[in-house]
Design brief:
The two termini are 30 Å apart. The protein has one domain: Undecaprenyl pyrophosphate synthetase, CATH 3.40.1180. The protein has a six-stranded parallel β-sheet with strand order 3-4-2-1-5-6, with helices on both faces. The chain has eight helices and six strands. Strand 3, helix 4 and strand 4 form a beta-alpha-beta unit. Helix 1 crosses helix 2, helix 2 packs parallel to helix 3 and helix 3 packs parallel to helix 4. Helices cover 43% and strands 14% of the residues. The protein is of the alpha/beta class and 246 residues long. Bound molecules: 3-methylbut-3-enyl trihydrogen diphosphate (IPE) (2 copies) and magnesium ion. The site of one 3-methylbut-3-enyl trihydrogen diphosphate has 11 residues, from helix 1. The site of one 3-methylbut-3-enyl trihydrogen diphosphate has 12 residues, from strand 2.
């Protein structure tokens, strides 16, 4: 079994993103309600953040609540929001201890006020931290993100702030929620589903994808280590040939 010591520190993914999936099925398998799965999922968030800090990752982005997740039963949405608020309250200390800066992407103004206020407060109180940037994707949808970017750019064109010809990838990037984040290097999805579910469509253009069958509450440091070592053994060619890289 590999441990953190087996990871090559020179070849770390700069930006790791995770689709944390399978809380509901994990609970069901145990004959419990879905909320039990989400509660245990929160524990995995905590341990994963700590592992990423120990590994020395610079950027960790977690898909926490999608624009589509608003369509879940109200009771489940309420539970998720309540869990968000309580874990933010609990984790502020650990973020500061671990030098973690909290960031968000998504339409966080659409969250319940309590959650919004808590998020803003924790972001403010961790903004001076210089270690890992932890980004929570909340009420996040990649298509909505791209739609917003197109609208903002269109307004600038209309007001003659930029010309249509000058629109390039950098300008598009600068209008995304992720404008201050590098592209994703490694994307992990738990629970055996092999899909992207409207997550970071632009930013994963050249990400390495890693799918693992375990449900999110069962995702342990050992799984994370395996994923990173697997990533380190891949050849990222970015369109070139293998010979060109060597
Ligand atoms: C992931 O687990 C958590 C969120 C999407 C908020 P799910 O709740 O999607 O669990 P499954 O996929 O139904 O098992
Ligand atoms: C994706 O999981 C969203 C999050 C992990 C927050 P879902 O469980 O909502 O994805 P689908 O609907 O099964 O694709
Ligand atoms: Mg799911």
């Amino acid at each position: 079994m590999n441990t953190i010591e087996d990871i090559n520190g020179q070849k770390l993914p700069k930006h790791l993103a995770i689709i944390m999936d399978g809380n509901g099925r994990w609970a069901k398998q145990k004959g419990k309600f879905r909320v039990f799965g989400h509660e245990n999922g929160v524990k995995t968030v905590r341990s994963t953040v700590e592992s990423c800090v120990r590994i020395g990752l610079e950027y960790l982005t977690l898909y926490t609540f999608s624009t589509e997740n608003w369509n879940r039963p109200k009771i489940e949405v309420d539970t998720l929001m309540r869990l968000l608020v309580s874990s933010l309250k609990k984790e502020l200390k650990t973020f500061n201890k671990n030098n973690v800066r909290l960031n968000t992407i998504g339409d966080i103004k659409s969250l319940p006020n309590r959650a919004y206020i808590e998020l803003v407060e924790v972001m403010e109180k961790t903004k001076g931290n210089t270690g890992m940037t932890l980004t929570l994707a909340l009420s996040y949808g990649a298509r909505e993100e791209l739609k917003n970017a197109v609208q903002q750019i269109a307004v600038k064109v209309k007001n003659n702030i930029i010309s249509p010809e000058s629109i390039d990838e950098t300008i598009i990037n600068n209008h995304l929620y992720t404008q201050n984040l590098p592209d994703v290097d490694l994307l992990i999805r738990t629970s055996g589903e092999h899909r992207i579910s409207n997550f970071l469509l632009w930013q994963i253009a050249y990400a390495e994808l890693y799918f693992i069958d375990v449900f999110w509450p069962d995702f342990k440091e050992q799984h994370l280590v395996e994923a990173i070592i697997n990533y380190q053994n891949r050849e990222r060619r970015f369109g070139k040939t293998s010979e060109q890289l060597n």
